């Protein structure tokens, strides 16, 4: 273990050693997520647990949305993006086929994760049994650099003398992990935008792979992972794996990323406008935004997924709901539905607006 004082004095900017020693944490200041129970550590470091967690969450969240679809509670019915009969009338794939495809997608996800992640012992050595105080001591001079650069020497030194230790601990336990998560979101978005757009602009990719997902004109939660297996591997599974790797995430951080992504992609296909839904409240890329992409008039728009809309805005592929509603899109459904249920032969009007 490298002593705190030597690592501080060797810093290239060479600040006053007394100041640095004063702001270097000498206790962990560990947050709630830092576990010490051997049993919990064993579970949290298990590849099996971390691979299954996002899958279990996906099925649980989708089951909840499916219940709302079938229960038809008035509150939620009033907030559907599309009328309920449209699911039967317009979608070209059955619910059973969707479930089968999702199951296959998750098998692929487990296989990739099992090869991608290290074994549990390696994870324990690299991520759990680490010298947190030593790492915070190494971080301290960089916090001093940033604070003095941002606030100036006089104000910066005053802040560091008074709050330096807490600042270092906060950056170590919260600041860096939050930045890693945000960066991973951006990597996932970048990966998926350009692959997604390519699958619409390249006829071969669309015909043989991405067209499977667009058999769902009226999306619902379970259909979020209704993809061709090749697309599911490249777009979803591999994209998330690359994001966690370039963001230098720990296994637990990666698991949280995968869990959030699973919840978000299911929510983006849920088919409801709910202002209080965290995924729709915090992100402009939400169920209403992605629904536009599933319609014929918006199929070459709104490629961004699953978090932000930055790439659509930058590259001019964004379509707002107002723009979508301005399109003329009356279109009768195929005659094959007419005999099944006359009410399903509907016209594509404006999506419902909820006050």
Automatic annotation (TrEMBL):
<keyword id="KW-0472">Membrane</keyword>
<dbReference type="Pfam" id="PF04116">
    <property type="entry name" value="FA_hydroxylase"/>
</dbReference>
<dbReference type="GO" id="GO:0008610">
    <property type="term" value="P:lipid biosynthetic process"/>
</dbReference>
<dbReference type="GO" id="GO:0016020">
    <property type="term" value="C:membrane"/>
</dbReference>
<keyword id="KW-1133">Transmembrane helix</keyword>
<dbReference type="InterPro" id="IPR050307">
    <property type="entry name" value="Sterol_Desaturase_Related"/>
</dbReference>
<dbReference type="GO" id="GO:0005506">
    <property type="term" value="F:iron ion binding"/>
</dbReference>
<keyword id="KW-0812">Transmembrane</keyword>
<feature type="domain" description="Fatty acid hydroxylase">
    <location>
        <begin position="183"/>
        <end position="317"/>
    </location>
</feature>
<dbReference type="InterPro" id="IPR006694">
    <property type="entry name" value="Fatty_acid_hydroxylase"/>
</dbReference>
<protein>
    <submittedName>
        <fullName>C4-hydroxylase</fullName>
    </submittedName>
</protein>
<dbReference type="GO" id="GO:0016491">
    <property type="term" value="F:oxidoreductase activity"/>
</dbReference>
């Amino acid at each position: 273990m490298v002593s705190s004082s030597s690592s501080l004095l060797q810093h290239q900017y060479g600040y006053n050693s007394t100041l640095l020693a004063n702001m270097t944490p000498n206790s962990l200041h560990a947050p709630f997520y830092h576990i010490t129970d051997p049993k919990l550590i064993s579970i949290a470091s298990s590849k099996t647990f971390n691979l299954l967690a996002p899958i279990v969450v996906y099925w649980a969240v989708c089951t909840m949305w499916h219940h709302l679809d079938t229960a038809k509670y008035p509150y939620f019915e009033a907030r559907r993006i599309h009328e309920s009969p449209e699911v039967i009338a317009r979608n070209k794939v059955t619910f059973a086929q969707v479930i089968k495809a999702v199951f296959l997608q998750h098998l692929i996800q487990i296989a990739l994760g099992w090869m991608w992640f290290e074994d549990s012992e390696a994870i324990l050595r690299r991520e759990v049994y680490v010298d947190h105080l030593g790492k915070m001591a190494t971080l301290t001079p960089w916090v001093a650099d940033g604070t003095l650069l941002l606030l100036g020497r006089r104000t910066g030194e005053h802040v560091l003398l008074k709050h330096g230790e807490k600042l270092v601990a906060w950056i170590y336990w919260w600041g860096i992990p939050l930045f890693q998560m945000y960066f991973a979101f951006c990597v996932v978005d970048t990966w998926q935008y350009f692959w997604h757009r390519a699958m619409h602009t390249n006829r071969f990719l669309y015909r043989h792979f991405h067209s499977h997902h667009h058999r769902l004109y009226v999306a619902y939660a379970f259909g979020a992972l209704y993809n061709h297996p090749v697309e599911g591997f490249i777009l979803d599974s591999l994209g998330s794996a690359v994001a966690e790797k370039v963001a230098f995430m720990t296994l637990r951080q990666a698991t949280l990323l995968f869990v959030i992504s699973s919840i978000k992609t299911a929510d983006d296909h849920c088919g409801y406008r709910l202002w209080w839904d965290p995924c729709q409240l915090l992100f402009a890329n939400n169920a209403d935004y992605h629904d536009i992409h599933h319609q014929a008039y918006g199929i070459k728009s709104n490629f961004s997924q699953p978090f932000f809309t930055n790439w659509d805005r930058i590259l001019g592929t964004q379509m707002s709901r107002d723009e979508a509603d301005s399109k003329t899109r009356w279109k009768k459904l195929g005659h094959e539905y007419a005999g099944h249920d006359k009410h399903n032969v509907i016209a594509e009007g404006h999506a419902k607006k909820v006050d």
